[in-house]
Amino acid sequence: MNGSADTLSRLLPSAAPSDADLAAWEKLPREEQLQRLQSQLIHRDCSVPSSASMADIRDRARAAAKLDRG
After folding, report:
1. Which of 25, 26, 27, 42 sits between 20 and 30 A of 6, alpha carbons compared?
2. What span, in angstroms and rounded, lies between the C-alpha atoms of 43 and 45?
3. For the chain, what is the radius of gyration of the CA atoms?
4. Closest alpha carbon to 12 in 67, 56, 66, 65
5. Are the beta carbons of 7 and 21 closer than 8 angstroms?
6. CB under 8 Å to 30, separation ≥6 — which residues?
7. pLDDT tens by residue, the chain, 70 residues
8. Containing H/E element for 6?
9. Per-domain boundaries in the chain
10. Cα–Cα–Cα angle for 8, 12, 13, nearest 5°?
11. Three-state SS at 23
C-alpha cells in the first residue's frame, strides 16, 4: 500500500477486505462509514434481482479478492 490517504479515498465496504482496508475503515468516523455504506446500497446494482444468496456473493467476492492478491 502506498499510503493511507489512497486507501481511505477508495475504501468501500468489502466482503473480503485486506488488513490495511480493515484498519483504514476502523479509523473512519462512524458517520463516514454510514455514508459509504449507504452510497453502496443506493447503487443501481442493488436494485437488480438476483438468484444469488448472500453467501454466494460473499464467496465470489472472496475468490476474486484472492485472485487479485495473488
Report:
1. 42
2. 5
3. 13
4. 65
5. yes
6. none
7. 344 445 455 667 677 788 888 898 899 999 999 988 888 888 777 778 889 998 998 899 889 888 877 7
8. helix 4-10
9. 4-69
10. 130
11. helix
Cell 480493515 sits on residue:
22
Place of cell 490495511: 20
Euclidean distance between CA atoms 25 and 52, whole angstroms: 27
Residues across the chain: 70
**Beta-carbon contacts of residue 11 (< 8 Å; ≥ 6 apart):** 21, 24, 25, 28, 36
Contact (CB, 8 A) for 17 and 62: no
